[in-house]
Write a structure and sequence with these properties.
This protein is an alpha+beta fold and about 280 residues long. The protein has helices spanning about 5-10, 55-65, 65-70, 80-85, 100-115, 145-150, 170-175, 215-225, 230-235, 270-275, and strands at about 25-30, 45, 155, 160-165, 180-190, 195-200, 205-210, 245-250, 255-265.
Length: about 280
């Protein structure tokens, strides 16, 4: 996740060990430029915030690097946790995140940070947050196993090699050995921070949907790219030209694993033929 490493390092030297929540603050509008907290259900925040940021410019600059982590979908309440620190709701007093909320987000999202060679930052040390559920922002429910079954999530994994398809029978065999096969168009764009981000362009074509639902497949593939950034770098060329791929994989223990990747060319008759024959094919 480009940019997060520098952010974690910077936070390590700026720990808010004893931020005075009784400090004089003011209510300001949550800035539109702050993409991290646009859907939190309130429009005003306290400044300085619980991270010790004193200006909106500082809030925007410091929060932008966490937008990518939020978009990975690492935890359903990661936005609630982060915004309670960067843009605390404007009440009579600071409403801190509960320790249980921090732990729930940490246990899921630290896996994404680990995938990028990073660790959960000390500034988000869960022991510094209150344990009393009635005086802080608590975790509301958990993601059940049945929820994860219907809405599987991508996970950190080694990068599958991009292969030449060979004969169409070989492609059909790959379809049989895996749970899903989708055709995607990937493109690269520059973020405001200057880092590159890789995106799924347009619709995802379901060749063999398996356990993936059509309405959620684009989000899942996008999250896979954000989590496995090193793989995205290898897939996407240095130019901004869009490239088409066939991603083949399995859903294992509610985790989406990509096992094979074929580069899709218009003249790749083996893949085209395999995709056409798949509906009538018996493994």
């Amino acid at each position: 996740m480009p940019g997060l490493l520098s952010l974690v390092c910077a936070l390590s030297f700026a720990l808010i060990d004893c931020f005075d929540i009784g400090i004089s603050t003011k209510c300001v509008n949550v800035p539109k430029e702050m993409g991290l907290c646009q859907d939190v259900g309130y429009s005003e925040m306290r400044l300085p915030n619980l991270m010790g940021h004193t200006t909106l410019r500082e809030v925007i600059l410091k929060s932008v690097e966490w937008e990518t982590l939020l978009r990975t979908g690492c935890h359903s309440q990661s936005g609630t946790f982060l915004c309670s620190l960067f843009a605390p709701v404007c009440l009579d007093t600071f409403l801190q995140p509960c320790r249980s909320l921090c732990v729930a987000v940490r246990d899921s999202c630290s896996q994404v940070l680990t995938c990028h060679g990073q660790s959960w930052p000390d500034v988000f040390d869960c022991d510094r947050f209150p344990a009393e559920e009635d005086t802080c922002l608590t975790s509301f429910g958990t993601e059940s196993s049945s929820y994860r079954k219907f809405f599987p999530k991508p996970t950190c994994q080694g990068c599958p090699t991009t292969e030449e398809p060979g004969a169409h029978k070989r492609v059909l065999q790959a379809f049989c050995q895996n749970n899903f096969a989708v055709k995607v168009t990937l493109t690269k764009r520059k973020r405001a921070s200057g880092d590159s981000e890789y995106e799924v362009e347009g619709w995802v074509e379901m060749i063999s949907p398996g356990s993936l639902f059509p309405f959620g497949s684009r989000t899942i593939i996008q999250q896979w790219l954000l989590i496995n950034t090193s793989c995205a770098h290898k897939l996407t060329p240095s130019s901004n030209r869009a490239v088409q791929y066939v991603l083949i994989g399995n859903v294992q223990d509610t985790n989406v694993i990509v096992n094979k990747i074929y580069l899709w060319h218009r003249k790749d008759t083996p893949i085209t033929l395999a995709a056409r024959k798949w509906k009538q094919h018996r493994c």
